[in-house]
Design a protein that fits this description.
The protein is mainly α. The protein is 61% helix and 0% strand. Among the domains are: 53 residues, no CATH class; 218 residues, no CATH class. The radius of gyration is 28 Å and the shape is elongated. It starts with 52 loop residues before the first helix and ends in a 12-residue tail after the last helix. The relative contact order is 0.10. Keywords: Membrane, Transmembrane, Transmembrane helix. It comes from Streptomyces odorifer.
Length: 441
């Protein structure tokens, strides 16, 4: 006598379930079976055979002959595309602590509400709720994640889970280090006599400040899951260097120089170094608040609607703090810095870093490289205009500088790039998948 056993929820998918993953132009048999009842969370209770009502509603069906092409056009009512999806993401379903975690991972893999309709659900979240409900769980599983979840790397974008001293280090001491080193360097240079020792002190001080900034980017809320590329690092160094040295050099080049060392914007350097602290705190506020909203939300749309204003508020707080620090640095060191240019640069760097932290690399790289390229192109055009017959190269830059001043070049370059990043960051950072484990992206 042959004994048959009922298939479990994570059994291998049958042949008819494959069209559920087909592209928009392919056959879509599951779409004809979708309906409001299939997405009703009330149907996901225990079924008469120990499974769930959703399991019995869609059935498990038998696979047709592999050589037949009929199921690719019209699958029998017994097909279960959700089971095939669960089999593909079985590890995620097993270690998920709530349906929103599954929904975020599905969203990260490109699933939309329109795609969820092929699995007989009105949206991604209702599909994730069924996948979560169909995985057998013990009472202990609901209070603590499986052991495999603890083996996964901690999400770097989330709130710090370390002890008090660790938080003190990453949120207070390290972010304050670049500003303290920069202030100490400027105070020492004001007392140092000109000469070789002064030059060596400048080089050592700049390297120390950059090393402190690098420590802040490797620890705490601004830590990226993967190191930034060479293009990002070079573009960032150029933008920072131009903010301190570029305006004076460009103005001197337009006037036929430089014949001697041009003015250095020390107030901007000090203000940007001090702004590392509010940048870390605002990043912490955003990522921590986003993860708390992720835990409370009941849908992807609700989470996105709650996260967008949080991102804009965090960016606004940073810009206000940056403006205050730049004004303070100008009051202490004499000449007032270009607030618009430094503010645009600060917004550009913070948005680029937030996107890198949450797994987006291409857009920040393009934005930073474009802003740096514009500044370099303007400077090179002014210098190249000194060649015979190339006077026309400097006309655009000279016209802009004559009307708005030399600070207009970095202001426009960084402001346009920052606005483009903001347009990209608002939808990208309001997705639940941006605030989950990097391994699920």
């Amino acid at each position: 006598m042959t004994t048959h056993h009922a298939p479990g929820p994570l059994d291998a998918p049958s042949r008819p379930a494959e069209p559920a993953h087909s592209g928009p132009g392919g056959p879509d048999p599951a779409r004809s079976l979708a309906g409001p009842g299939a997405a009703d969370p009330g149907r996901w209770g225990p079924g008469p055979s120990g499974g769930t009502v959703a399991n019995s509603a869609v059935g498990t069906g038998n696979s047709p002959a592999q050589g037949s092409s009929g199921p690719a056009v019209a699958a029998p009512p017994g097909g279960d595309p959700v089971k095939a999806l669960m089999h593909r993401h079985r590890e995620l379903c097993a270690r998920a602590v709530d349906p929103l975690e599954i929904a975020a991972a599905l969203e990260a893999h490109g699933m939309t509400d329109r795609t969820a309709a092929r699995f007989r659900h009105r949206d991604v979240f209702s599909l994730a709720e069924e996948m979560y409900a169909r995985v057998p769980r013990h009472s202990s599983d609901r209070s603590a994640p499986p052991a495999s979840a603890h083996a996964a790397p901690e999400p770097v974008a989330g709130p710090s889970a370390g002890a008090g001293p660790s938080r003190l280090l990453t949120l207070v001491l390290l972010p304050a280090l670049p500003g303290a080193l920069c202030a100490g360097l400027l105070a020492g240079l004001a007392q140092a006599p000109p000469g070789r020792a002064r030059t060596l002190a400048v080089v050592a001080g700049v390297l120390a400040v950059l090393s402190a900034v690098q420590l802040c980017l490797r620890h705490g809320p601004l830590r990226s899951p993967r190191p930034a590329g060479v293009a990002v690092r070079l573009a960032t160094l150029w933008l920072l260097g131009y903010a301190v040295l570029g305006d004076g050099l460009l103005d001197a080049a337009v006037r036929g120089g430089p014949d001697r060392l041009w003015p250095v914007d020390t107030a901007t350097a000090l203000g940007l170094a001090l702004a590392m602290w509010p940048a870390v705190l605002c990043a912490r506020i955003f990522t921590g608040g986003a993860r708390r909203r992720l835990a409370r939300s009941r849908g992807l749309g609700e989470f996105a609607a709650a996260t967008r204003p949080l991102l804009l508020a965090s960016l606004t707080c940073y810009l206000v703090a940056l403006g205050g620090l730049l004004a303070l640095a100008g009051a202490l060191l004499g000449p007032s810095p270009a607030l618009a240019g430094a503010g645009a640069l600060g917004a550009l760097l913070l948005l680029a870093r937030l996107l890198l932290v949450h797994g987006h690399r291409a857009t920040p790289t393009v934005a930073l490289a474009t802003a740096a390229g514009v500044e370099l192109a303007v400077l090179c055009s002014v210098l190249a205009s000194r060649l015979p017959g190339c006077d026309f190269l400097a006309v655009p830059a000279e016209t802009l500088i004559e009307v708005c001043g030399a600070e207009a070049v970095p202001t426009l370059a960084c402001a346009v790039a920052a606005f483009a990043l903001l347009v990209r960051a608002v939808p990208a950072l309001s997705r639940a998948s941006a605030h989950t484990d990097p391994g699920t992206r």
